[in-house]
Amino acid sequence: MPVYRHPKSWLVLAVAGAATALAWLSLVNPGMAGLIELCGENGVFAYVAPWNGGRLLGLAAMWSTMGIAMMVPCIAVALVASGWRWRESFGFFTGALCHALGYFGVVLPRVLAAAGLEWTLESIGLASGGSPPNHPLVSALLLGAGLAALLWQRRHRIGTMQGQGPALCGVHHALRQLPILLAMISIQLALGSMNLGAMALLSLAMLVGEYWPICRNRRTLFEVLPIVR
């Protein structure tokens, strides 16, 4: 049975879609006191003294949720691929779950570091309430860092590897996407971490960058994710 006709493949994709939808909902739903509202300029987490641990906790929760909302769609195909590749040795769902754990084990520390950076900028007066930085030089440096990460990715593509299991392939997948992740973080900080429009556009750009080669040429799936056999 082809991988994308397997019922478990669609279940994995459904779970990934549900996790993405729940993350976006928890960010923006005003009826649930969405995290963007809580951490924004007029939110309860914004009215705290500099270097306050509560503000850092709120930003960490918001950035972690942003990471799930923006990155889970980019690895949905890889989760299915890992589940299919290791269905006999690990089980379909276990293979997909281990890939996700390996992936976010690399991604989430970087996302939490972004929360720490924003907390630092706010505490020293260079930003406030999830808005763009107050100083144009800081914005320029952040945008420059994002552009440098994208250029680095184009010139130094990390090669593929077979991996010793789904978790290691998840780690490798995260390392391959690391420049894009760092560019996303830098641009989001420069435009304002609570800027929903920028968040949506960056999410779309990352989806296109991840799946356009696969849509253009089906064989690319086996080149980008050489874990399907």
From TrEMBL:
Superkingdom of source: Bacteria
UniProt keyword terms in alphabetical order: Membrane, Transmembrane, Transmembrane helix
Name of the featured protein: Uncharacterized protein
Membrane spanning residue stretches: 56-80, 92-115, 135-152, 180-208
